[in-house]
Design goal:
Helices cover about 25% and strands about 40% of the residues. The chain is built from six helices and 13 strands. A hairpin with a 2-residue loop joins β12 and β13. The radius of gyration is 21 Å and the shape is globular.
């Protein structure tokens, strides 16, 4: 490597490390909305409309990061307005949790924001995307540990189509790779946490974010 090439490499290294290969993933941002009512803080959730992707799931307002979005925070605020009708000026951003890279191939940027009580009381949900909202006190998550389960992910170099024919996705033999990669491999296991509240089940990415939030939440509500 020539000296000028090394200098070019150094100048191109990120000043703040991010997520390697980020463009390959589904990039999104969510807002964790906090609402203070009678001296107690609540987390505002929404239940996705039944007819959309992942319908019926409990989640935070948020969604895909679009090219037109100025930042991931802008994504979270835009989606919150589109889904719940809560304007940016009615949200005080308190900070951001760590970036989460989910096993399903998604990168999520979670922001924490305090919603004005008046804005919460007057929000207008988009019924095409949101079935309903839920308000759950933070102390519930502090006092109730989630149920814990384990899922397994395998990498499949091929799949069997509807006619029983093997559809090769990754040509292991042609590439001369070891035989171990000719069949599904990996079987990576990861934990899933489940919270139950008011007849609803909160799990998946949402529960991961909740656990991280609660770990950082100290002291009593003021």
């Amino acid at each position: 490597m020539k000296k000028k090439n090394l200098k070019q490499l150094i100048s191109n290294l990120p000043k703040t490390p991010g997520v390697l290969g980020r463009k390959r993933f589904f990039n999104s941002a969510v807002l964790i909305p906090l609402v203070k009512i009678k001296g107690e803080y609540y987390i505002l959730f929404q239940k996705r409309a039944a007819h959309i992707r992942q319908g019926g799931d409990i989640c935070f307002p948020g969604g895909k990061h679009e090219q037109s979005d100025k930042s991931f925070l802008h994504t979270a605020l835009r989606e919150t307005y589109e889904e719940l009708g809560i304007k940016e000026e009615d949200i005080k951003i308190l900070g951001q949790l760590d970036t989460y890279v989910a096993p399903i191939g998604a990168v999520i940027e979670p922001f924490v924001g305090r919603i004005k009580k008046k804005a919460y009381l007057n929000m207008k949900i988009d019924e095409n995307e949101v079935e309903k909202t839920l308000l759950i006190p933070i102390k519930f998550f502090k006092e109730h540990k989630p149920e814990e389960y384990t899922l397994a992910h395998e990498i499949h170099p091929y799949k069997i189509d509807e006619n029983g024919k093997k559809d090769i996705l990754f040509p292991v033999e042609e590439l001369g790779l070891p035989d171990t990669y000719k069949e599904p491999w990996g079987n990576k296991r990861h934990k899933i946490w489940v919270y139950k509240y008011g007849g609803e089940v909160i799990w998946g990415i949402t529960s991961v974010i909740i656990r991280d939030l609660i770990e950082k939440y100290e002291g009593e509500d003021e």
